[in-house]
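@channel anyone free to eyeball this complex?
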Amino acid sequence: MSGCIFCKIVNGQIPSKIVHRDDLVTAFRDINAQAPTHILVVPNQHIRGADEISAEHGQVVAAMFMVATRLAESEGVGASGYRLVFNVGPNAGQSVFHLHLHLLGGRHLAWPPG
Ligand code: 5GP
Ligand code: ZN
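replying in thread with the prediction:
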């Protein structure tokens, strides 16, 4: 989608620290990391957010989770634990309207979040 910052990262128009890429999913380091490991896992296709997911997205959403958990292992946070987060809408602070799964780890993560 033109004007979408994460579409531009997926297609290489905007540089980022990409840690995984396949036919369905791209993962890259968050530019404003909130934890020692903070990676964003996004579908290569533009989906506005978690509130737009439907049955047709089953394969790509499953791929997002599998990539995230695999990256957690390769980042060395699999055993210590990590958090997977979708922010949806204003109260959750969603700021980019291209579906993205946050992978956060490497420090204690308070619950409930602020
Ligand atoms: P949200 O608040 O929408 O759940 O998360 C958006 C995330 O995208 C934020 O954590 C923000 O730091 C990250 N972000 C925004 N713009 C860029 C960018 O251009 N590059 C990278 N790598 N991350 C970005
Ligand atoms: Zn997009």
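from a first look: Residues 5, 14, 16, 28-32, 40, 87, 93-96 surround guanosine-5'-monophosphate (ligand 1) (CB under 6 Å).
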